[in-house]
Design a protein that fits this description.
The protein has ten helices and 15 strands. By secondary structure, the protein is of the alpha/beta class. Bound molecules: NADP nicotinamide-adenine-dinucleotide phosphate. The site of NADP nicotinamide-adenine-dinucleotide phosphate has 30 residues, from α1 and β9.
């Protein structure tokens, strides 16, 4: 099968197209013919081995100390089940499915456990739209609903509101009934308002930390703010929730306990099939829409990596893995 692979850590042009054996599903796995995938921040961080601070060594131990252990990136996938292991009960060949895997979406075929974050794709959703949902949607859902326990009437500041996670966080925060202030550049202000934000702060003109006692929750999806900086802007019982963290945030947890002020929470997402269904329910209810920045053909995956690495994307960046008429870098 054709796949985009990386066999050493490095910049975007480390990735190349190669032929690999088609994987065979294990007893409890399904074999998916991938039609669409996405390039996420996780993909470029893994490819570049760009783990923050103290996480570099644990990151390398997981992904491969000297060279990547799994050469095919791509966690989001959408496609069709073409074979199943003998113990698979939840899926059958010819079903359209989408989900989140540990990698492999940047190849024409992917094996994934039937118990992983995988769900049947509704007829109303294209493969491209389905592949745009899992990574950003699941992180936004779990962090806002389960970690922050965001409730109707609360006020949330979403930093990086136009990005891969942020574009979903704005919509899900609104669906939960919150008042949303998004932080993005002026060029993305209308886009973020269109996702439902009540107000947008242009971080190049106004500091998101300038407000006083304003937010129940600061959800920073890009790592542009720090807990001490946001203390004044948070309400006394508010919560600072960064998606990225390193040694500095561990120290900030101690600080939060010492000053008994706004809290700080760190979390690592475990992606679940039932949460994919929650995303689908929100889509069906008209409260969430897949957000696609650009689509790239698999052959142009280096450009997709480079674009996501700029940290100025709007929502998901899709890789068309198996569409006959895959467009080349169209917006
Ligand atoms: N802990 C977990 O379990 C977990 C789960 C999922 C993800 N993550 C992590 O969460 C992060 C998610 O990143 P992402 O992919 O969503 O980010 P991204 O897509 O790269 O973010 C890009 C967005 O951030 C905005 N931005 C750039 N600089 C900014 C600044 N200084 N202030 C405010 N906004 C700014 C950009 O807006 P403009 O273009 O308008 O500048 C752009 O729309 C990743 O680092 C990922 O590893 C963690």
């Amino acid at each position: 099968m054709k796949a985009a692979i990386y066999t050493q850590y490095g910049p975007a042009d480390t990735v190349r197209i190669a032929q690999l054996p088609t994987p065979a599903p294990g007893p409890e796995e399904v074999l998916v013919r991938v039609r669409a995938s996405s390039v996420t921040t996780a993909d470029w961080r893994l490819r570049a081995s760009a783990f923050p601070g103290l996480l570099w060594l644990p990151g390398r131990l997981i992904t491969g100390l000297f060279a990547p252990r799994n050469p095919v990136l791509g966690m989001d996938f959408a496609g069709e089940v073409v074979a199943t292991g003998h113990a698979v009960t939840r899926f059958r060949p010819s079903q359209r499915v989408f989900g989140f895997s540990g990698g492999g979406g940047h190849g024409e075929y992917l094996t994934v456990s039937q118990d992983a974050a995988i769900a049947v794709t509704p007829d109303a959703l294209s493969d491209t739209d389905a592949a745009a949902l899992p990574w950003g949607g699941l992180a936004a859902l779990v962090f806002l609903r389960d970690v922050a326990h965001l409730r109707a009437g609360q006020h949330v500041l979403i930093v990086g509101a136009s990005g891969g996670v942020g574009a979903y966080a704005v919509q899900i925060a609104k669906a939960l009934g919150a008042t949303v202030t998004g932080v993005a550049s002026a060029a993305n202000a209308d886009f973020v308002r269109g996702l439902g934000a009540d107000r947008v702060i242009d971080y190049r003109r106004e500091s998101p930390a300038a407000a006083v006692d304003a937010y129940d929750l600061v959800f920073d999806t890009v790592g542009a703010t720090r807990y001490p900086q946001m203390l004044r802007a948070l309400k006394r019982k508010g919560l600072f929730l960064p998606l990225n963290f390193g040694g500095r945030e561990l120290w900030h947890i101690l600080l939060a306990r010492l000053i008994r002020g706004p809290r700080l929470a760190l979390h690592v997402n475990a992606d679940k099939a039932e949460d994919l269904q929650v995303l689908l329910d929100l889509v069906a209810a008209g409260k969430l829409r897949p957000v696609i920045d650009r689509r790239f053909a698999l052959d142009d995956i280096r450009a997709a990596h480079a674009h996501v690495e700029t940290r100025h994307r709007r929502g998901a960046v899709i890789v068309d893995v198996a569409l006959e008429d895959a467009p080349r870098m169209c917006a």
